[in-house]
Write a structure and sequence with these properties.
2 copies of one chain form a homodimer. The first copy, chain A, has 244 residues and is α/β, with parallel strands linked by helices. The first copy, chain A, has a single domain, classed as SGNH hydrolase (Rossmann fold, 3-Layer(aba) Sandwich). Helices cover 42% and strands 11% of the residues of chain A. In chain A, strands 2-1-3-4-5 form a 5-stranded parallel sheet, with helices on both faces. In chain A, helix 5 links the parallel strand 3 and strand 4. In chain A, helix 2 packs across helix 10, helix 3 packs parallel to helix 5 and helix 5 runs parallel beside helix 7. The longest helix of chain A is centred in the middle third of the chain and has 18 residues. The two termini of chain A are 17 Å apart. Chains A, B: It holds the Pfam family Lipase_GDSL. Chains A, B: One of its GO terms (molecular function) is hydrolase activity, acting on ester bonds. Chains A, B: Keywords: Hydrolase, Lipid degradation, Lipid metabolism.
Chain lengths: 244, 244
Amino acid sequence: MRPKIYLFGDSITESSFTYGGWGASLAHHFSRTVDVVLRGYSGYNTRWAVKVMERVLPAANGESESERERVSTIAVTVFFGANDACLPDRCGAFQHVPLHEYKHNLHSIVSFLKNRWPNTLVLLITPPPIDEEARLKHPYVENPTGLPERTNEAAGAYAKACIEVAGECGLPVVDLWTKMQQLADWKTAYLSDGLHLNETGNRVVFEEVVMKLKTEGLSLENLPVDLPMISEIDPNDPLKAFEG
Amino acid sequence: MRPKIYLFGDSITESSFTYGGWGASLAHHFSRTVDVVLRGYSGYNTRWAVKVMERVLPAANGESESERERVSTIAVTVFFGANDACLPDRCGAFQHVPLHEYKHNLHSIVSFLKNRWPNTLVLLITPPPIDEEARLKHPYVENPTGLPERTNEAAGAYAKACIEVAGECGLPVVDLWTKMQQLADWKTAYLSDGLHLNETGNRVVFEEVVMKLKTEGLSLENLPVDLPMISEIDPNDPLKAFEG
């Protein structure tokens, strides 16, 4: 059975199989070795994620299946915070989760995953930086206030909290907020609407995730291919490759 | 548990999660409803596919899992023939499968799938047309003969055989060979190397597959979403959506 990597997150995960998306790129990268399973939920914050995680990630119907899943799920990316970081007094207030609760919820998600699959790599990803001017140009709900529903400063606070949780749990983390801002024109280079990722931004997430997985021993060099590659098939006796 | 669509085929399936690939587009299309599972094997023909299908598609470890898989696999695309159609006296000869055996092998694959999952939709896809000049420019193995390893005429014979098998089994089929050639400049419009699909060619496969699935009742209108969409969440009482 081919191992799985679950992508659990919000809209930046849900849209990750669009053109050049980081999820699709992962699936392509691991096309002969791993199933990349999409579990992205647009608009969700960690409060809602905690409510649904039992349903989102495969329930164990009896011991043998539980055992099987434990073996086969090699990694889960947890990518929340962009919605939690909506400001509590702006038009995205219903998605807001206070910073201390965000940390607590991330801990709950990690505990749940570690309890279900003790040997599975949990990889946290911080929210991306926010381009506030672009958020005003691309509102999701009516926003006559002239104030963006998210700020880059708030996103940074949630990113920092995410990194703290990773440290407290001994987990790897992709610090997307910092990584992206290392480029001077990050607002246009990586973002499509001040929040979501364009093709280049998706590329950054893909590369960072592949690098972290590799550091943790999950790479094309280490993961078995389930069936012979064409290069391993003897042109003079092709069927030999499929014996036994 | 979210239903699955398996993509079983050769390199045109294996590479379907690349930029704008038809597999990635399907996964994006069904991002909240279906898991699209990649089972593409570069270079494989139906003779090899028959040898590996038991291992490729999930084995049933006991009745309860078998039951679960039967319910959850809603469709399988079977997309072979491009390698079978390699000419027997050219440089791709080791991949060649005679036409009558190709038909027999497709029947075997369909029987296997129908036996494993009686209610699962099996969707056949014919090989694409071949641009012979482009094949000479993009050889996979040394080819000093000046003759392409595949011809469009041979691909057409395998496409016709695939359609016949679909008819004999009462299955839907995407006739890619004919569909693509309806465009005058199909060679450059759809193909990257005379055989594999460029982005526009991938788009054609995606659209044809979505249309066939829809005709068979598998569409966004009919498939349940596993968790509330953001539009269904009451901003004044978000948690209500997650009760029960």
